[in-house]
Amino acid sequence: MNQMSDPAQTGPSGIFSRRGILGVSATALAASALAACTPAHAGAGGGGVQKGKKVIFVVHEKNSFFGPVQKGFETFGEAVGWQAQFIGPATFDQSTVVNMMQNAVNSKPDGLILTRIDNTSYDGVIKAAQAAGIQVILSNVASDDYQKLGVAFVGQNFVPAGVTAGKQILAHVAKYTGRQDGAIIIGKIQAGNSALEQRGEGIRQAVSDYNHAHGTQFTTEELIVGTDEAGAVSKIDGRYSRDPHSVVGWAGTAFECQFVATWAKSKNLVGKFANGGFDLTAPVLAGVQDGSIDYTIGQNPWAQGWVAAALLAQQMDPGYPSFTYDTGAEVVDSANIAAVSKREAKVA
């Protein structure tokens, strides 16, 4: 899997796995980094060794998911006095992302935080940054073999998170349908994104394990819906209309479940099948609240901004190596939606 190294070892780059630092919370990690970067004599507003450093965070698509990521990043940057920039295209385009990352390198920042959504496309930019003496850390998505680049990663462990999602969808399929067979549609907002691919792999693994254990015959199939709601709803409706009886659940790998919810409510189909996905966007949380979405899997986007920034800070000065940090797979459903919504409102 792409983001966890051996917990008992460090690699040649000195990057440590979170699993080797048991019991340490994201808050404690970032707080210790902040303390290391801001001497005791420094006053409020970032008067320490980090003051004035230029740090740029480039994401592959600046959609609604990244709101808390940006806020976490900017909150940390303000605390230590960074010149912080958070940028990304409004919609994903590979060449645009690469160009934005290269332009960020060309502007000679002290540090970069990047998303690496495939195994090769961004490596030239990362290596160019390192050759220029710019400190780099990955956040949100790292993709296979990122460790060979000598960088750490703050984000979810995607295959296990997909297994968690698969178990959730199967539980709700049983609740709504009581069936022993049927198709679980694995939704994707984007083709080729390694995080979505690996979550899908985990969902398929959970379904296979369930079939083996229970003698059921559930199948899985993929549906790429995009991020535009109207287009996504059309694709969802098209798949369902071809064979309504075959569909027992919709298992998104990101926030596709909000599009399924919109469509299901418009067709009076809520409760006819299971529906769940990932992320804590406002429409997803609203869907869990009104029952049109059965669950969502969180990945602590705040930490993907704040903890990534804190680790990059200690990497820049005084020079401690960063380590990979798993931001988890939080199950959010009717039992905890009120508390989670209250929390997320603070970082929206």
From TrEMBL:
Query: Where does the record place it?
Result: Cell envelope
Q: Which Pfam families match?
A: Peripla_BP_4
Please state the protein's primary subcellular location.
Answer: other
Keywords of the record, alphabetical order, are:
Signal
Keyword Signal belongs to the record: yes
Q: May I ask which residue range the UniProt record assigns to the signal sequence?
A: 1-42
The Periplasmic binding protein domain, residue ranges: 58-317
**Protein family membership:** Belongs to the bacterial solute-binding protein 2 family.
Enumerate the PANTHER family for this protein: ABC TRANSPORTER PERIPLASMIC-BINDING PROTEIN YPHF, D-XYLOSE-BINDING PERIPLASMIC PROTEIN
Q: What is this protein called?
A: Substrate-binding domain-containing protein
- Its source organism is Nocardia albiluteola
